[in-house]
Hints:
By secondary structure, the protein is α/β, with parallel strands linked by helices.
Amino acid sequence: MQTKKILVLDGHPAESSLSRTFAQTYGDAARDKGHDVRFVHLSDLDFDHDFGQGNYHDFKPLEPVLEQVLQDIEWSDHLVLTTPMWWGGLPAKLKGLIDRMFIPGRTFDTRKTTLAGLPAPMLTGRTARVILTSDTPGWFMRLVYRQALIRQMRGQILGFVGFKPTRFTYFSGASAPKPGRVDRWISQVSKIGAAAV
């Protein structure tokens, strides 16, 4: 078995959450199999969420905590992100983390383009897993919302900077799960973590 360098990012802004439980479960299972695992908890990070001017030339310098997370991403072979879906999107602090960190010259190169004419990704050679919780039933997510957040994460965020493939695990009914459901979810996450996928 080839060992991986895995960054597990708990993308829930609260100190205690189902996302944090899944992050720890995945990371512990992967570490038990010999993989090198680092953890980042969004709730521990203090930074300005606002990108500011909104262009590629005058963005704010990264705070030390953001620089460290970005270095951890650059170090990793595999990124694991656990997050809830709120109002059809990511929590504001997590979106702010992405807005601030995924900057030109570090995660994509505006001086080079792909065949599609997009900036060249700079984080290629890495894979990702997103563990997403929501109250939206899976069938509704697929048929009505057309998996909008999943498509955004796969193509417009992680895929844009080079993560391929990005796999998803979706758990619905997270606010008031039926008895035994969380234990089954934890077992499933543990198996995914042990396989490091």
